[in-house]
Please model this.
Amino acid sequence: MKIEQIYTGCLAQGAYYISDGGEAVIIDPLRETQPYMEKAEKAGDKIKYIFETHFHADFVSGHVDLAAKTGATIVYGPGAKTEYDIHEGEDGEQFQVGNVSFELLHTPGHTLESSCFLLRDENENPHSLFTGDTLFIGDVGRPDLAVKSDLTKEDLAALLYDSLRQKVITLPDHVVIFPAHGAGSACGKNMSNETSDTLGNQKAINYALNDTMSKEDFIREVTQGILPPPQYFAKNAAINKTGYDSLDTVLDRGIKGLNPDEFEAAANQYGALVLDTRKPVEFTKAHIPNSIFIGLDGSFAPWVGALITDLKQPILLIVEEGREEEAITRLARVGYDYTIGFLQGGVAGWVAAGKDVEELESIEASELLDRMDSNLKMKILDVRKPSEFEAGHIPDAENVPLDFINNDMIKLHQDEPYHIHCAGGYRSVIFASILQSRGFTKLTDIKGGYKAIKEAGITVA
Model:
């Protein structure tokens, strides 16, 4: 028996490849299917099942493509209804894979169809539990992503409480927990950086498994302090129910190198969003007017999903040479399938063609200190999350989280000078690029963000 966790840091997501006796199971696969197929081919395995722990909201699963290419059966828990062929499993149903087996444990709460898959070894002893978003390391899945008119988040939290106590806590302490996400995912509040643990240790340290916690206290704990889900979550969940274009089709459409004239014409003809995925410092020095920065070397896909409201928005890419397919794939992971090309030669080629570029002022934190000491009239925008702001911030700074920029834009004025910072300098450039594309001209990015601000000796509260 072999268990391999395939962890994708950008999405804080764990997929799994489990094999025994020449047969394999894939659990919660990402959109791109080739890595799983290559593993199977190399090992001489036949992919028999694709287990989906629930309808994912934070990414588009690769289950439909993978089933079409391998003949594997897609398995969901009870109550899952789709527009493509699946096996709707029953609570307690067994699935044989080589000499080992999986038992489906229906664990509603995060969503109604949420299920865990218990792996039993060749002697039928419980070995590990693939928990999806039912149970994380240090946390549980949020209960507000599958709310129906007749079910509140409190109702779902109550179901989750029962699921954990009836289906999970009763398992032996040595069982290894393999969740679908780790720290950084918006599917929970306080997930650990660890991506697996024993159930026994989780019983000791995870508040959600505290056997002395009442249902009322559990409901209160898991429902308070939850930020609104990113706008793309509901859309991705719908895609995972209905199906989607093959990733091969998406790549064919997107990997089209365009010269500067073709690129400009395409932007105008299709109303395309020009998305600059380079490093923040490269964007601040020179970028195409009206382009938006969201760098590949960061939480690229989640920020695209949070900020670009139309999944069918045509997208043109500014991307480092050799990373075109990576960018298109990472967009498709969260349902943005309409990349229509990229700029050949990048911004350097754009400049060589005699076309205009813009800059974004970006200063060191020490210069911000000098400007503050000079009593220059300025407004400082802290674009971190409210919890980060509350933990420490520059006095008089205004908290305008990047997460909510589409709603909070009305609070800002184009003729005001703004100095913008985040934690490390990634989110602030995204924020400033959006403002600049909307006609704001008096913008200054603070390099290094809050970390640099503290190091520069600027007073924080």
Remarks:
- The first helix runs from residue 34 to 43.
- Residues 107 and 162 are 8 Å apart (CA to CA).
- The two ends are 54 Å apart (CA to CA).
